[in-house]
From TrEMBL:
<dbReference type="GO" id="GO:0004016">
    <property type="term" value="F:adenylate cyclase activity"/>
</dbReference>
<dbReference type="InterPro" id="IPR001054">
    <property type="entry name" value="A/G_cyclase"/>
</dbReference>
<dbReference type="GO" id="GO:0005524">
    <property type="term" value="F:ATP binding"/>
</dbReference>
<feature type="domain" description="Guanylate cyclase">
    <location>
        <begin position="38"/>
        <end position="163"/>
    </location>
</feature>
<dbReference type="GO" id="GO:0005737">
    <property type="term" value="C:cytoplasm"/>
</dbReference>
<dbReference type="Pfam" id="PF00211">
    <property type="entry name" value="Guanylate_cyc"/>
</dbReference>
<keyword id="KW-0067">ATP-binding</keyword>
<keyword id="KW-0547">Nucleotide-binding</keyword>
<dbReference type="InterPro" id="IPR029787">
    <property type="entry name" value="Nucleotide_cyclase"/>
</dbReference>
<dbReference type="InterPro" id="IPR041664">
    <property type="entry name" value="AAA_16"/>
</dbReference>
<dbReference type="GO" id="GO:0009190">
    <property type="term" value="P:cyclic nucleotide biosynthetic process"/>
</dbReference>
<dbReference type="InterPro" id="IPR011990">
    <property type="entry name" value="TPR-like_helical_dom_sf"/>
</dbReference>
<dbReference type="Pfam" id="PF13191">
    <property type="entry name" value="AAA_16"/>
</dbReference>
<dbReference type="GO" id="GO:0035556">
    <property type="term" value="P:intracellular signal transduction"/>
</dbReference>
<protein>
    <submittedName>
        <fullName>ATPase</fullName>
    </submittedName>
</protein>
<dbReference type="InterPro" id="IPR027417">
    <property type="entry name" value="P-loop_NTPase"/>
</dbReference>
Length: 1018
């Protein structure tokens, strides 16, 4: 029995092939996959008019020559005709086997297509062509009699629209294709054009012809970095050059695309040229693989031209050759041949004559002057030239260095027989990679993190480093000139530039389908995985798995590494993983992620990794599991005080749950989840989102007629309203919620509702009411049987009550009571050790120190809290801590420092949506501004704060603003004096009613002083 995948012999009793691991009894057809390709669309213009009056046979005869010419042009340059359209065709380059030159090949095919149709001699046959490079889904369509390779996706529509827009015998190209083929092909920019089906005009280019630049010159022109390192390789090359004094030396530089083979070869060749060597450089072209002797012609022409131009050596190197060898050279160089003897030769004799003549020319040059013959990209050499180059590389002529380059999949079969030294090119080391980046980005340390990210992302492959940097500059992420670039915005993903996607895809296509499946599983698992987990997901026989892993390790795609993780596997660089992952169609990805979820859930070591489980469940679109693991991940983040991360996971959990079937149970879970999520959003400063969650939960609870959950939702909404809305709104909803909670009888939610209402009273300036309610809640929470709602503990709620009560007593001047409550809050924070609890205790502690007249101690406490809040993302506290820290600096006479901190506090409060904090920061910012000599600006700010506080019902803050106005207004006129007196009396009235005794006393003292001075003006 034969395995259909690898053709090896297998035991009929096996269900798996022991060699490749393919399941037996199944057909092996190409899977659907995503590919980055270039699409060619071409058709005959007005074909309907050409055949309208013809019979079927005549119509076919009229159009078939054009279609045949199109097919021939596409196939000449390695394209696949994916669909014929009657009067045209669609073709794809770069699939099913990836080719990093797909865009230049498609452009050359388009040029040849137009030429071939024009050469038919039928003036009525005019074609138009459209080209676009992009991602497609490639798949095999099988019918009863045949299979057709087709592509799908938006990219093909753009190619079709470009084709439709093109003029007769013109080739229109998208910007994506032009950027990949630029240098190999000449383009004219036509400007933005409106194409049918696209909302915005798109840039369009027209092909003007093939470029005469060599591939090396194109790469050199694009290069943005200097040549670095390669000390080992240069030493080997130098040793080979020295050895040519005795006999010809051949060196093959072997490495993947982008590794720097050409750069090293040309840098070394130019160095020899400077030392008096003659340099002959030629390259094999992917466009000319089908043209016999195309590479040999590029070798011979520069030798013959160099001799012809040298006045010191007028001799024609061909004159001493036998006549038949001279004809052989003329045949290679496409010169006319009149000697009938040549025409009578058998093909083998002709090939032998060409080889002998070519070797003689090269030997003659080496005799005259030491020569380095550089032939690049042997993986693209035409078959006819390959035989001749093999003979040249085997010459024994002294003074000749044959320097060759190739990719691993293009290693010549004759390389061993010519005793060549093979130099395997490796990526740069980290120091050399950083040297490249310093040359491109600049030496500044400000880009140090970015440089290290690029090194890790590209694994120090020079081309990849260059193209990633170019992409960042072209996108505007890096600004400036090469050698002095600055990062202007954060980078989430470095991505894979289009120019190197084909390079990586071509490497992946070297491995078998079975090995590719292992790569896909590893890519799904992440940049690093364990062999144990890969084995569980793959479900392969051990021998088959190890064979595949060994192949991938040798190919340096997925390698074994030394790690604390047993049997760790890692992609050589992240780009390989990304291209592998991106090549999978959505259904394949979902299936693999689902298998990973199952494997992780069944592994004891991974059960406490909800973040990873959540990611894979979400990618698998298993919404029930995504909800469950997302909620677990959010809870885990809350435990470690990662509130922003917790909010993200709660969002995933909520969105995932909403994608499950609608049931009453689902809706109940949705409400509960929003209740639990409220703290993560509040603490991370997403107050508006917390308010939305309350509204959403209330509506959903109403829809299922669940009173208890409605009360909970209203409580959440009320808590958010304390920060986001006006005091009157917060008090109104708070009082309603307290009544409903009492009727419902759930003590936990009742405690939270009453705490929220106490906070609302405080914000509204009703300090007596606030303390009375907070005291009642505190008393209940001290009971060992105390209750708190989901997502909260009684101890945490008690801490908040102590914090809020201490602040309230401080504002009321009852410092002894405030201190006792602050000690309770600090003790709880010390006991729990949670960052949030410590920040809350620091906030009330700083407020107490300010009330006790010790601003230095207040600043020390608040600074610690401020740093802790920023470190752990407790953004809700950042503006109020910054505000009171600014107040502490102000009272110490550190006016500039105070202004800076209060400005930051106000901006943070605005960003969070913390209304009262915006006003309080503005009031004390005005006082700092006044202290710095800007009285008018301070007056304007305080007037704004007072009016806003009055309009929105912040009576306590209105009193503080009024007192501030009295302080900063100079009593230089009767009008000013009257305004100051009015402000003081209004502040006293509000402070007296609210219970803000310290503020009342300060205002009364200032008022008494002014009245004592009578009519005196300052």
């Amino acid at each position: 029995m034969i395995c259909q995948a690898c053709q090896s012999t297998i035991d009929p009793s096996d269900s798996w092939c022991r060699k490749c691991g393919a399941p037996l009894g199944q057909r092996v057809d190409p899977d659907n996959e995503r590919r980055f390709v270039t699409i060619l669309r071409a058709d005959v213009i007005d074909s309907t008019g050409l055949v309208a009056e013809l019979g079927p046979e005549e119509a076919v005869s009229r159009l078939e020559p054009a279609l045949a010419a199109m097919r021939g042009a596409v196939r000449q340059f390695g394209g696949i005709v994916s669909k014929e359209l009657g009067d045209g065709l669609a073709a794809v380059f770069g699939a099913p086997i990836a080719d990093d030159n797909h865009a230049p090949l498609a452009c050359h095919a388009a040029i040849e297509l137009v030429r071939r149709v024009a050469s038919l001699g039928d003036p009525g046959l005019k074609v138009r062509v459209g080209l676009h490079s992009g991602h497609v889904v490639a798949y095999m369509v099988a019918s009863e009699f045949s299979k057709v390779y087709e592509i799908g996706g938006p990219a093909q529509h753009l190619a079709a629209r470009l084709e439709a827009a093109a003029e007769a015998n013109q080739i229109y190209v998208s910007e994506a294709c032009q950027s990949l083929a630029d240098g190999h092909v000449r383009f004219e920019f036509l400007g933005p054009k409106v194409l049918r089906g696209f909302n915005e005009p798109l840039p369009v280019y027209r092909i003007m012809g093939a470029s005469d630049l060599s591939s090396w010159r194109v790469r050199r022109a694009r290069s943005i970095s200097r040549f670095v390192d390669r000390t080992t390789e240069r030493t080997l090359l130098a040793r080979a050059a020295e050895g040519t004094s005795e006999i010809r030396q051949t060196v093959l530089l072997l490495g993947d695309a982008g590794i720097g083979k050409s750069r090293l070869a040309h840098e070394f060749g130019q160095g020899l040229r400077a030392d008096g060597w003659s340099l002959v450089a030629a390259e094999c072209s992917p466009n000319l693989q089908g043209a016999p002797f195309s590479t040999l012609k590029r070798v011979l022409l520069p030798i013959l031209e160099a001799v012809a131009k040298d006045p010191d050596d007028p001799a024609d190197p061909r004159k001493d050759l036998p006549a038949i060898q001279q004809c052989a050279l003329d045949a290679v160089l496409d010169f006319p041949i009149s000697d009938p003897q040549w025409n009578d030769l058998e093909p083998d004799a002709r090939r032998r004559a060409i080889s002998d003549a070519s070797c003689a020319i090269v030997e003659g040059m080496a005799h005259r002057q030491r020569t380095v013959l550089l032939i690049e990209d042997l993986h693209w050499i035409d078959r006819a030239s390959d035989m001749v180059v093999a003979m040249i590389a085997s010459l024994r002529t002294p003074g000749l260095l044959v320097l060759l380059t190739t990719r691993p999949d293009g290693m010549p079969v004759w390389i061993a027989s010519c005793h060549a030294e093979v130099v395997a090119m490796r990526p740069l080391d980290d120091d050399s990679g950083l040297a490249m980046l310093a040359d491109m980005l600049g030496p500044s340390e400000t880009n140090a993190d970015l440089k290290h990210r690029i090194i890790s992302h590209t694994s120090n492959v020079p081309l990849f480093i260059e193209e990633v940097c170019r992409g960042l500059k072209d996108s505007g992420t890096l600004r400036g000139q090469w050698g002095d670039l600055a990062l202007v915005r954060p980078i989430d993903e470095l991505g894979i530039p289009a120019s190197i996607q084909g390079v990586i895809a071509a490497r992946l296509d070297r491995v078998s389908k079975q090995e590719r499946s292992i790569l896909q599983i590893a890519a799904t698992l992440g940049p690093r995985s364990s062999e144990v987990m890969l084995r569980k997901v793959a479900g392969l026989p051990e021998d088959a798995l190890q064979n595949r892993l060994s192949t991938l390790d040798r190919a340096e795609l997925l390698v074994r590494i030394d790690s604390e993780l047993e049997d760790a596997l890692e992609f050589r660089h992240e780009m390989v993983r990304q291209v592998t992952y991106d090549s999978m169609v959505e259904k394949v990805r979902e299936n693999l992620h689902a298998r990973v979820v199952t494997a992780l859930e069944n592994d004891e070591a991974w059960r406490d990794a909800p973040e990873r489980l959540c990611y894979h469940a979400t990618q698998a679109k298993d919404w029930q599991k995504a909800f469950s693991h997302g909620r677990s991940a959010a809870r885990k983040c809350l435990v470690r005080s990662a509130y922003a991360d917790a909010a993200d996971y709660f969002e995933i959990a909520m969105n995932s749950l909403d994608k499950t079937p609608m049931t009453r149970s689902r809706e109940a879970d949705a409400v509960d989840l929003r209740m639990e999520a409220r703290m993560a959003f509040m603490w991370s400063g997403c107050v508006a989102r917390a308010l939305e969650l309350g509204n959403e939960a209330e509506q959903r609870a109403d829809a299922i007629n669940d009173v208890g959950r409605k009360v909970a939702a209203m409580t959440v909404r009320a808590s958010a309203q304390n920060f986001y809305g006006t005091p009157s709104e917060a008090v109104a909803i708070g009082e309603a919620v307290v009544r409903l909670a009492a009727e419902w009888g759930n003590q936990g939610w009742s405690n939270l509702a009453q705490y929220g209402l106490g906070q609302a009273y405080f914000v509204a300036g009703r300090y007596h009411s606030a303390e009375k309610l907070l005291a009642a809640v505190r008393a209940r929470l001290l009971d060992p049987e105390a209750h708190a709602p989901i997502g909260t503990t009684p101890k945490y709620l008690l801490l908040l009550c102590c914090m809020m009560s201490s602040i309230t007593h401080t504002v009321m001047g009852e410092l002894e009571a405030a201190e006792q409550l602050q000690q309770q809050a600090a003790a709880i924070a010390e006991e729990t050790g949670r960052p949030y609890d410590r920040v809350a205790a620091a906030y009330s502690g700083g407020w107490l120190m300010l009330g006790q007249g010790d601003p230095a101690a207040a600043a020390a406490i608040l600074e610690d809290g401020f740093v802790l809040a920023q470190k752990h993302g407790i953004r809700l506290f950042v503006p109020v801590l910054a505000c009171h820290l600014g107040m502490a600096y102000l009272e110490q006479g550190l006016f500039e420092r105070a202004r800076g901190m209060l400005t930051e506090a106000r901006e943070e409060a605005k960003a969070v949506g913390y209304t009262s904090a915006v006003l309080r920061s503005l009031i004390y910012l005005a006082l700092a501004t006044w202290r710095l000599g800007e009285a008018k600006a301070a007056q304007t700010m305080l007037r704004e704060a007072r009016n806003t506080a009055r309009q929105q019902g912040f009576s306590g803050l209105e009193a503080e603003a009024l007192f501030g106005e009295a302080v900063v207004t100079p009593v230089t006129s009767e009008d000013n004096k009257a305004a100051v007196l009015a402000s003081l009396r209004a502040a006293i009235a509000i402070a007296s009613e609210s219970g803000a005794r310290p503020l009342q006393c300060k205002a009364e003292a200032m008022l008494a002083g002014m009245l004592a001075r009578g009519n005196e003006l300052s």
